[in-house]
């Protein structure tokens, strides 16, 4: 293992493994569950199991004859000669089946405005939007960037692209203009869909200015590929306008026809590109295609959450800017004909009971959120959820990072009334859909463990030599067989795709997570083993933040680590060496506070507020190996106030004393 990597044991989650509680499903739940124990046996026949799911859950314009073609490994082809359309599957077919009056979306805006959209209305909106995009020149294969708040139009925009066979690339609204620019340019997008702004903590927060910035001519950059910007009016705030280029969404949709024939595409046609952080500074455009992705999104949504589309009200709190919003807000639930809640704002606007008020109001029965949110609610106190009637909840989900047993128990007791099963779902942007999770009517759940690979998924834990570890052993999480919703590559960079995921172990997918198997063979996730951080369930790259820091004239060198944090899981802590001419400025408390603020704002501008370091420590040196690699593990020891570990491979072993001695004043 390279010396700057951390082992799973160093991630501080070892205490998880002393957990012995287990909660079997109640007989009533098990009896009514979609997934029964036999499903694991049925999945044993390999790809044929997925062919059955694809035909059961998805409507095909043209059926497929071949299930899996792995001859071009590691790029898989699933159901390749089949044809379908994702928007038709998510919307039209439910209307055709007589369910047009079923509510697809209960929208709750942060200021309290609401909107209810049935499947029939959704069909009209999506068709109009598809016609509007086509009128702006969007054709099958063209890329469209979506930069929107969490509003109904976000889902409509994604489906309108899918209807045309134009891959979308959603960029989270919290990313900066610079981050948006690089994603637009990497994807070569023709159109950007945005809004004047969205509501955030009681105030309108502008979005359009970032788009204007991201596509404006810039020295040294090629002219933007963007021809039009389609703008949703959400807040009504003043918005700068470029005639001919900018078009209001409501104008474009008003004049558009409510009928649109979906573009039937091959199963392997790109559905979307979603950028995520890797171990280098450049974000990776994860490519997902249509047939396999939809099959596994629908399968997992139905079985992991035990969805009954006629009676459940489902709510996933994720933003569409992340993969969770793609698979478990837009595609999975709608393909399954679910009724779902979409909420625009933060959990504490205008008060800390907002989420639970929404659960009570819509009688939410399935709720899917992230451990960081659960921990924030724990901190606010259980008297807050206690004020609301949460008895409608029957399944609870967790995603994004390991959930500590304490938070799991709180979630079960306070939110789930000690009865709703919790499904801790492990997956990634790259996997497209949930891979490891209990099945709520089958598995006896254990607080803190994602436990079992889903039926049809070959996930295991291996050691350094790729040997599967015995029960009780620890190592790396890998996926040894292709799965339908796997990424089909990194947009424009096949080599990076092979390098990143397929070179660590011959022929198997390396997820980047440390994991352990307990005595029952259940899988416990232990956090990333690479230079990727997980802050509030958001994935950030240490290198990307480091390059943002050194792009500021104050900074000579920077090293970033993810330090354990009670609420956000990990927090960004940066160590910086100032350029000589600025070194003096940090010597007074005011001076270092100013520097810290300048640099935090700088990172927010370069990447986005989510990447802002929680702490910035000015240091005289950074710990490096003889080959010049920064030993982040030692910096993590400092950031987590631990005794500094083995520093013998440092080129200069006195560096750590120098760093530690300068940090007596907590910032
Ligand atoms: C990384 C993927 C999957 C959607 C949200 C994040 C971590 C995710 C769990 C879980 C432990 C988890 C992993 C993974 N992760 N879910 N249930 N238990 N860790 O997607 O941004 O692609 O991040 O999130 O480290 O590799 P992502």
Unreliable runs? 1-14
Q: What oligomeric state do the depicted chains represent?
A: single chain
**Bound ligands, each once:** 5'-O-[(S)-butoxy(hydroxy)phosphoryl]adenosine
Task: Look at the structure and give the mean pLDDT.
Answer: 93
CATH class placement of the domain at 538-662: Alpha Beta
CATH topology of the domain at 538-662: GMP Synthetase, Chain A, domain 3
Return the CATH architecture of the domain at 538-662: 2-Layer Sandwich
Which range best describes the helical content: under 10%, 10-25%, 25-40%, 40-55%, 55-70% or over 70%? 25-40%
Global shape: globular
The number of E-state strands comes to 29
**Strand neighbour order, sheet with most strands:** 5-4-17-16-18-19-20
Radius of gyration: 24 Å
For the termini, the CA-CA separation is: 33 Å
CATH superfamily of the domain at 538-662: ANL, C-terminal domain
Largest sheet: 7 strands, mixed
Strand content: 15-25%
Count helical runs. 19
């Amino acid at each position: 293992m390279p010396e700057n990597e951390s082992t799973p044991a160093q991630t501080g989650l070892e205490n998880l493994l002393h957990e012995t509680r287990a909660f079997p499903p109640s007989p009533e739940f098990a009896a009514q569950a979609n997934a029964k124990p036999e499903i694991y046996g049925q999945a044993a026949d390999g790809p044929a199991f997925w062919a059955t799911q694809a035909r059961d859950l998805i409507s095909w314009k043209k059926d497929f004859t071949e299930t899996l073609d792995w001859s071009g490994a590691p790029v898989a082809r699933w159901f390749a000669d089949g044809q379908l359309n994702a928007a038709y599957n998510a919307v039209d077919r439910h209307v055709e089946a007589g369910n047009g009056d079923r509510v697809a979306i209960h929208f709750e805006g942060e200021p309290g405005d609401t909107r209810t959209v049935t499947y029939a209305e959704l069909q009209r909106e999506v068709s109009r939007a598809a016609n509007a995009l086509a009128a702006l020149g969007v054709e099958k294969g063209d890329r469209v960037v979506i930069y929107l708040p969490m509003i109904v139009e976000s889902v409509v925009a994604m489906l309108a692209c899918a209807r045309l066979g134009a891959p979308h690339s959603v960029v989270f609204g919290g990313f900066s203009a610079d981050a948006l620019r690089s994603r637009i340019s990497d994807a070569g997008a023709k159109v950007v869909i945005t809004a004047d702004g969205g509501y955030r903590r009681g105030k309108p927060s502008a979005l359009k200015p970032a788009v204007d910035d991201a596509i404006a001519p810039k020295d040294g950059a090629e002219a933007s590929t963007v021809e039009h910007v389609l703008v949703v009016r959400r807040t009504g705030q003043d918005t700068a306008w470029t005639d001919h280029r900018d078009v209001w969404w409501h104008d474009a949709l008003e004049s558009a026809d409510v009928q649109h024939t979906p573009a039937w595409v091959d199963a392997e046609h790109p559905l979307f590109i979603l950028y995520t952080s890797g171990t280098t500074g450049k974000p990776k455009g994860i490519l997902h295609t249509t047939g396999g992705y939809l099959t596994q999104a629908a399968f997992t949504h139905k079985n992991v959450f035990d969805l009954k589309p006629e009676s459940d009200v489902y709510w996933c709190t994720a933003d569409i800017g992340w993969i969770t919003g793609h698979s478990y807000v837009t595609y999975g639930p709608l393909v399954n004909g679910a009724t779902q809640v979409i909420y625009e704002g933060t959990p504490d606007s205008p008060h800390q009971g907002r989420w639970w008020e929404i659960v009570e109001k819509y009688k939410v029965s399935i709720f899917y959120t992230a451990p960081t949110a659960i921990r924030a609610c724990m901190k606010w106190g259980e008297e807050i959820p206690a004020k609301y009637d949460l008895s409608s909840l029957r399944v609870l989900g967790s995603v994004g990072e390991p959930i500590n047993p304490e938070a799991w128990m709180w979630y079960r007791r306070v939110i789930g009334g000690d009865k709703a099963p919790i499904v801790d779902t492990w997956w990634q942007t790259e996997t497209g859909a949930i891979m490891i999770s209990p099945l709520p009517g089958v598995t006896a759940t254990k607080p803190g463990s994602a436990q079992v690979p889903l039926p049809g998924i070959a996930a295991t834990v291996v050691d350094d030599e790729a040997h599967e570890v015995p029960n009780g052993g620890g190592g790396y999480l890998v996926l040894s067989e292709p799965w339908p919703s796997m990424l089909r590559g990194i947009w424009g960079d096949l080599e990076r795709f092979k390098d990143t995921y397929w070179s660590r172990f011959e022929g198997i997918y390396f997820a980047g997570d440390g994991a352990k198997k307990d005595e029952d063979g259940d899988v416990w996730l232990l956090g990333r083993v690479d230079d990727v951080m997980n802050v509030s369930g958001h994935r950030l790259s240490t290198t990307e933040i480091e390059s943002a820091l050194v792009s500021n004239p104050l900074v000579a060198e920077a090293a970033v680590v993810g330090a354990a944090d009670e609420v956000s899981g990990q927090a960004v802590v940066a160590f910086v060496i100032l350029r000589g001419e600025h070194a003096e400025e940090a010597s007074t408390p005011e001076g270092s506070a100013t520097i810290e603020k300048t640099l935090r704002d700088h990172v927010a501008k370069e990447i986005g507020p989510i990447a802002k370091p929680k702490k910035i420590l000015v240091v005289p040196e950074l710990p490096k190996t003889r080959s010049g690699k920064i030993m982040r593990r030692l910096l993590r020891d400092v950031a987590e106030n631990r005794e500094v570990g083995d520093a013998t491979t440092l080129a200069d072993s006195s560096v750590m004393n120098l760093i530690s001695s300068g940090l007596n004043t907590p910032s």
